[in-house]
Automatic annotation (TrEMBL):
This is Adenine deaminase. Residues 48-329 form the Amidohydrolase-related domain. One of its GO terms (biological process) is adenine catabolic process. Belongs to the metallo-dependent hydrolases superfamily. Adenine deaminase family. Its cofactor is Mn(2+). It holds the Pfam family Amidohydro_1. The gene is ade. The keyword ATP-binding does not apply. One of its GO terms (molecular function) is adenine deaminase activity. It catalyses: adenine + H2O + H(+) = hypoxanthine + NH4(+).
Length: 551
């Protein structure tokens, strides 16, 4: 049991909306008393004590770290809890993957709230490693009370059409008293109303204020997302003054190099710097997710678990200390959570590829390619129909026009790769490959030539999962991800350095993207429009059907 102690600070009360000098009395892991000093205004000589930050929607797997290592890095920035969808490992290992996250996360003093994945597999148009049924979800709710919610219901067409399986999963969540998370990019008007009416309580996919207002109007909570790939803070933050009671902050996906630098604290800093009311901002960052998800997280009240942070000011929120259940878990930029042993589990059964596997035969001399256009900081894509560069009957990348080859290789069994073309990656030479490929996590790769593609993909296969970068002159780097092909079994700060190295090399090869590997991971995410690639082929997310890559 952590030691009992007292702490003098300017205490932030997010219920009374006050900042009061007081003495915190902590014993047996709880706030026993908050004794005001009698002063009416904050004491400039004292630090500030406030509830810890909560990431209201994150896939821990996207950090490339197991939960215990994610926690070690996050507490440094004042994060005390996450609402975590284990959807990624669920697509690889099913219920066993969800249990892995529970077990590993339970070894450290951090408050993970894992959900029951609602869409595994996400669609029937890709090959996943597992399935999580309605019966599996009920078992998770029954046997694991710490499973706190039904994770993002990405099958919004199924909700609107009242698909029986979709509605059964929502019914089970309601029966067991769990909130249901949403995922419906671009859904507005009557469709948004019907989506919410089915029981969906949140959405983290809004990329315009108008879309967010439509969803707020029908009772949904809006999560302001700012992660390594999708960044919607600027589009949504000005809704906060009027709607702060119904908003939260989240990262969704957070790569390890950026997690080393900051987390939800960065969104708090930015919001306050824009002139937003500090107490409203902290309600969004701390109180709202605890109340919405019924998290066992203290909010700095007498009797609450002693989960709080100490900052030196309310401008940059430099975190001096982080406490969980009264235990000091981070201090002055250093994590105090010890590393724990990491078990390795996986599902990887494909075989090496050859450069010829990525050849695309032109159906005619003057062919047209349907090109995916990716955007920095967005999950959505666009489609361009462009003249194909054809030589010797084969469609080739057109580096001058930034038209590169994109491939998805089935990682669960040997199969012919799916190949298409993409703009926006900006590579001038070489290739990138990754076994992190939402949602089914097959191998996704982008490259300037077939030889580089094959080398990069084979490096990932040899590592049984990982991120790989290769250049035509023989340079290559690999970050192995042996835990489900998604996460490292190494210490978090080491993984962050290794990730920074592969990221830097990808940019040396020409990519202008802020997070090339994160963007690559979403090029197989069929539930986000408009054009994506699965291991089964090029998929039109608006027409919801496969289309030919070259015509």
């Amino acid at each position: 049991m952590p030691a009992d102690f007292q702490l003098q600070a300017n205490v932030i009360d997010l219920f009374a909306n006050t900042i009061t000098p007081a003495t915190l009395h902590v014993a047996a892991g709880r706030i026993q008393q908050i004794a005001p000093t009698g002063a009416l205004n904050p004491d400039p000589a004292l630090p500030y004590a406030l509830p810890g930050f909560v990431d209201a929607h994150v896939h821990v797997e996207s950090s490339l770290l197991v939960p215990s290592e994610f926690a070690r890095l996050a507490v440094v920035h004042g994060t005390v809890a996450t609402v975590s969808d284990p959807h990624e490992i669920g697509n690889v290992l099913g219920v066993a993957g969800v249990k892995y996250m529970l077990e590993n996360g339970g070894q450290v003093p951090f408050k993970f709230c894992f959900g029951a994945p609602s869409c595994v597999p996400a669609t029937p148009f890709e090959t996943a490693g597992a399935e999580i049924t309605a019966a599996d979800i009920e078992t998770l709710f029954k046997e694991h009370p710490e499973i706190g919610y039904l994770a993002e219901m990405m099958n919004w067409p199924g909700v609107l059409h009242r698909d029986a399986d979709v509605m059964e999963k929502i019914r089970l969540a309601q029966q067991y008293g769990r909130p249901v998370d949403g995922h419906a990019p671009g859904l507005r008007g009557e469709d948004a109303r019907q989506y919410a009416a089915a029981g969906i309580s949140t959405d983290h996919e809004c990329f315009t204020a108008e879309e967010a207002l439509d969803k707020l109007a029908v009772g949904m909570k809006i999560l302001v997302r700012e992660g390594s790939a999708a960044r919607n803070f600027e589009a949504l933050i000005d809704l906060l003054p009027e709607h702060h009671e119904h908003m939260m902050f989240c990262s969704d996906d957070k790569h390890p190099d950026t997690l080393v630098l900051g987390h939800i604290n960065q969104l708090v800093q930015r919001a306050v710097a824009r002139g937003q009311d500090v107490l409203q901002v902290l309600r969004v960052a701390c109180r709202n997710p605890v109340e919405h998800y019924n998290l066992p997280v203290g909010l700095l009240r007498a009797g609450d678990p002693a989960d709080f942070i100490v900052v030196d000011n309310l401008t940059d929120f430099s975190v001096q200390q982080t406490y969980l259940n009264g235990e000091l878990v981070a201090e002055k930029g250093q994590t105090l959570i010890p590393a724990v042993p990491v078990a390795v589990v996986n599902n990887f059964h494909t075989t090496p590829v050859q450069p010829a596997d990525f050849q695309v035969v032109a159906p005619q001399a003057a062919a047209t390619v349907r090109v995916i256009e990716c955007f920095d900081g967005q999950l959505i894509t666009a489609r361009h129909d462009l003249p194909a560069r054809v030589e010797s009957g084969l469609v080739l990348p057109d580096i001058a026009q930034d038209v590169l080859k994109l491939t998805v290789v089935n990682r669960y069994r040997p199969a012919a790769p799916a190949v298409s073309f993409i703009q926006g990656f900006g590579l001038k030479r070489g290739a990138l490959a990754s076994s992190v490929g939402h949602d089914s996590h097959n191998i996704t790769a982008v490259g300037c030539d077939d030889e580089s593609l094959a080398r990069a993909v084979n490096l990932v296969i040899a590592a049984q999962g990982g991120l790989a970068v290769v250049s035509p002159d023989g340079e290559e780097l690999v970050l192995p991800l042996p835990v489900a092909g998604l996460m490292s079994d190494q210490e978090g700060y080491h993984v962050a350095e290794a990730y920074a190295a592969v990221d830097a090399l990808s940019k040396q090869l020409g990519s202008p993207l802020q997070a090339p590997f994160m963007t690559l991971s979403f090029m197989a995410l069929l539930v986000i429009p408009s054009l994506k690639l699965s291991d089964k082929g090029l998929f039109d997310g608006e027409a919801f059907r496969f289309v030919e890559a070259v015509v």
